[in-house]
Design brief:
The protein is α/β, with parallel strands linked by helices and about 240 residues long. The mean pLDDT is about 95. Helix 2 packs parallel to helix 4 (about 75-90). It contains 10 helices and 6 strands, in the order βααβαααβααβααββα. It has one domain (about 15-145, about 180-230): Decaprenyl diphosphate synthase-like (Undecaprenyl pyrophosphate synthetase), CATH 3.40.1180. It is globular and about 60 Å long.
Amino acid sequence: MKRETKLKNIPNHIAIIPDGNRRWAKSKELKPWVGHQYGAEVLKKILRTTLDLKIQYLSFWASSKDNLKKRPLREVKFLLNLFQKEFTELVSDKDIHKNKVKINIIGDWKKQFPKKVKAPMKRCIEATKDYNQFYLNFFVAYSGTSEILKAVQKIAKRKLVDSKLRITPEFIKENLLTRNLPPVDYLIRTGGEPHLSDGFMMWDIANSQLYFSDKLWPDFTARDFRKAIEEYSRRERRFGA
């Protein structure tokens, strides 16, 4: 058996844009939304690998605002049912509790989702609120552009009240939805289209290393994920120096 190389220089915070679910389903002559179900299974494998590698923060873009507003009604219903099912299972997942994984859900899901879908999501947050070993962050009904806009609006209101208020990078961070998360070290996007979308974690990926995979998300394996981490470990981060 080939001996596995121990990785060095592991990123502390990885963010994933899991692109390609619908294209994958179409290539299999399945309904486009079925790809989301297969994609959910991939995330479970990636999470286990993340825990094995002791990567403390994993952020996952589960849906954008546009996903829920512009997709066909049948696909939106499928997505909502999938969220309900997966979060119901996640709240009792043994790996989550064994590894003390704190679950955060970031975005406008509380405004957009029906009660039956929100209920298991809230249970996940409540059941893991005191954990602090690992952090699993879901971005649901999220827009990075909207996040920045709201932060600017909040800061502007406070500036009107206090003209001496100093607007620093730290102060901006305090007004973001991601205020409790560290900067993203490594952004991984699947799907073969190397671009960013809707300002995803715009402030937090300012100095991130980027990794683009040609594989569609349902085909992205734990081995592929580990290969991405191996590449990160070989890179040198200079931060402008």
